[in-house]
Every structure is written in structure tokens, then in C-alpha cells.
Amino acid sequence: MAGHSKWANIKHKKAKEDKARGKLFSKLVKKITVAAREGGGDPEINNDLALVVQKAKDANMPKDNIERAIKRGTGELEGVNYEQFVYEGYAPAGVALYMEIMTDNRNRAASEVRHVLSKNGGNLGESGCVAWMFERKGQLIIDRSEVEVDEDEIMLAVLEAGAEDITVDEAAVEIITEPGDLKSVRDALEDMGYKFTDSDVAMIPENKISLDDPNDAKKVLKLIDALEDHDDIQEVYANFDIPDEVMDQIEDEI
């Protein structure tokens, strides 16, 4: 999710834990396989594949794993046939959910996602019910605990590289681009010496619901966590924000 509230920083830490457990790698293997199947195995001419391979490299996935996933996608190695689609719905407090699914069993995925939602106070909606609340954008992340950043310098660099927007706080830098400009902006900034902890094309909410009630915040975060833990759900996007003072109250409970 876009933005770098206290929750976004916690989410980044959880992503590192996922990587350690191998969950992130298994999801990236699916994405690489599907991208190679749909657009070919050459990242030079398949932009979707180039983006997910870069994401895998950012996560320190071994080169052999990446190459095997590409070969499964192109049919050089035997592999599972994954289907990709989107589910939309709502979390508690009216928060919109946009979920990108990749699975080898659509019926199983539908049943399990519906179960996770209903168990945690959410519900599945009709196709298109929340997609209009989001905009597809390129997103680059710099973790400031890993990379030293001068705020004035990077703001000028981002404008020079052709990005749309930048958000800087004490924990992270988020750079927003048009989807087609993501690679060129990243390349330009890397040439200037910047290193990224993540980059992807993401669904960015145009407006956010502020979760001022700690109980609502806990319910939404519990649901998001359960959805992200599901193997068939690649990405979960939601249009909520949690004020820092609320996040401070509930941080030890999530």
C-alpha cells in the first residue's frame, strides 16, 4: 500500500520476515512464471517480466530460481499452469480491498478468500465495485534504515528523472511514476547512485479512509494480514490510513 505511515513501515518489516520464510519467493516465482508465459522469456522485450525479475532481485532471490521460473513459463521446464485475476471487496469500516490473485485452482481460491474475508469482518464484492477508487502507478521504495538519503537532493533527482511524485519521511522514500516510466525512472536514479528496496506497478488509492478508532484499525490490519498470508493472493491494496497516535496504541497487538 502506498504511503509511509507507521503501518507501512511495520508492513515492510513483515515483508522481510516473509522473505526469510520463503513465502515472498514462492509468490514471486508464480509472477515470473506467468509473465514469461504471457509475454515470452526475454526481459528485454517483455516489460512485465523485467519488472518482476527486478522485484525478485531486490528481494535477493537466487538467480537459479529466477531462471527456472522463466523456463517453466516458456515451457522449457514442466510447471503448474497459474491463472491470474482480481477480487474486489470491503474490509471493516468500509475500507476498499483490491486483491490480485494467482492460482492453479480458481474454485479453491474463491472459496478460501471468501472464508478469510467473512471470518475477519470483510466481504467479497462485485467486479468493478472498488477498482475505480485506485489508480495503477509505478512505485519505488527506498528504506532509509538501509540507505542514506539527502532529502533535498533526492527531490531534485526525482524531478529530473521524470517521476510524478515523491513522499519522504524518517523511515522511507516513496517515488510514484506513470507505469510505463517505472523502469526509466529507476534506471536514471540508479545512475545517480540511489538503491531501491522495492519497485513495482501498484494500485494506489486516490483517497483514503482514516481509521481513527483503534478497534477498526485492528480489525482492518488483522484482515489484511490474513489475506496477505494466503498463498494465492499476490497483492492486497486498500484505501485506509492509520494516524500515528492510533498506530502507537495498537502496535503491540498486531
What tags apply to this protein structure?
10 strands, 4-stranded antiparallel sheet, Arc Repressor Mutant, subunit A, 254 residues, alpha+beta
Mind explaining what this structure looks like?
- The chain has 254 residues and is α+β, with helices and mostly antiparallel strands.
- It has a domain at 6-74: Integrase, N-terminal zinc-binding domain (Arc Repressor Mutant, subunit A), CATH 1.10.10.200.
- It has 9 helices and 10 strands.
- Strands 3-1-2-9 form a 4-stranded antiparallel β-sheet.
- Strand 5 and strand 6 form a beta hairpin.
- Helix 2 packs antiparallel against helix 3 (47-58) and helix 2 (23-39) crosses helix 4 (63-74).
- The longest helix is centred in the N-terminal third of the chain and has 17 residues, at 23-39.
- It is globular.
- The two termini are 17 Å apart.
- The mean pLDDT is 89.
